[in-house]
Design goal:
By secondary structure, this protein is mainly β. It contains 1 helix and 5 strands. Strand 1 and strand 2 form a beta hairpin.
Length: about 80
């Protein structure tokens, strides 16, 4: 999904509608921060698992070219 795809999906929605994310054990919680991060793919293939295919840099377990990505996060304390 790109930023343009996200904007297109969000555009028709009411601006006061909460943004929530799926968390462990099938629960959901409020998104607390949106940030831009440098990321790279994890050296193991974690496709279709809750582990995640990418890691925020710096991380020694990554391969390939890093790139910038929008990260929507649950924890504002990470900033």
């Amino acid at each position: 999904m790109s930023v343009a795809d996200l904007i297109a999906k969000l555009h028709p929605l009411p601006p006061d509608l909460p943004v929530m994310l799926t968390v462990s054990e099938g629960g959901i919680d409020y998104a607390r921060v949106v940030r831009i991060a440098d990321v790279a793919q994890h050296h193991r293939n974690w496709s279709f698992t809750p582990i995640g295919q990418y890691r925020e840099l710096p991380d020694e377990n990554t391969v390939g070219e890093p790139f910038k990505a929008v990260v929507i996060d649950l924890d504002a304390e990470l900033l």
